[in-house]
Amino acid sequence: xxxxxxxxxxxxxxxxxxxxxxxxxxxxxxxxxxxxxxxxxxxxxxxxxxxxxxxxxxxxxxxxxxxxxxxxxxxxxxxxxxxxxxxxxxxxxxxxxxxxxxxxxxxxxxxxxxxxxxxxxxxxxxxxxxxxxxxxxxxxxxxxxxxxxxxxxxxxxxxxxxxxxxxxxxxxxxxxxxxxxxxxxxxxxxxxxxxxxxxxxxxxxxxxxxxxxxxxxxxxxxxxxx
Length: 226
Known about the structure:
The protein is of the alpha/beta class. The protein has 9 helices and 7 strands. The chain has helices at residues 25-39, 47-50, 53-62, 87-93, 106-118, 149-157, 179-183, 194-198, 213-218; strands at residues 75-79, 98-103, 124-128, 140-144, 168-174, 190-193, 206-211. Strands 3-2-1-4-5-7-6 form a 7-stranded mixed beta sheet, with helices on both faces.
């Protein structure tokens, strides 16, 4: 696979070069087009990043399908969805999932709802609220660089069903873990390095952290950060 620096931005992104994504190429490309439309109106990602939207934002979300199979699950929550990532990508990959995309910024949710409509997603609902005000539990919860991990784990704990893997929490993160994570016994059950999954050094020290719901539900330290 080519490094990002070797990819011509004038060539349409080749989803077929990535294992398991060819069947979703049309919708993923439509998502990129709709995302760029909205990014020209409200700031979803930086102008420097928008030309590399597929490589640096959509593809790292889609790679979840290589490490987890949600086909047997039913409900999904994306906390702090922002511009709809990873929520819209997961909705494309798993059309049977009931996908709830949550954010406290209304204008971003307007964009996300329109993107879902443009690409024909029937399994997405957007919710304008804070996670602290939600009282529904879900099979799968995700977040992508939303806030400090200890705080996010506290939020996710209240939204997760007590169900075995592949249910649980998946969090896209970069850099080192906060000191509380090891001190509180909250290192992930598994981490999936994105540089290895995507064969791209840009993603060095970036990864998806997976947590089983049972561990989070039992951890007393998270009571203080919900």
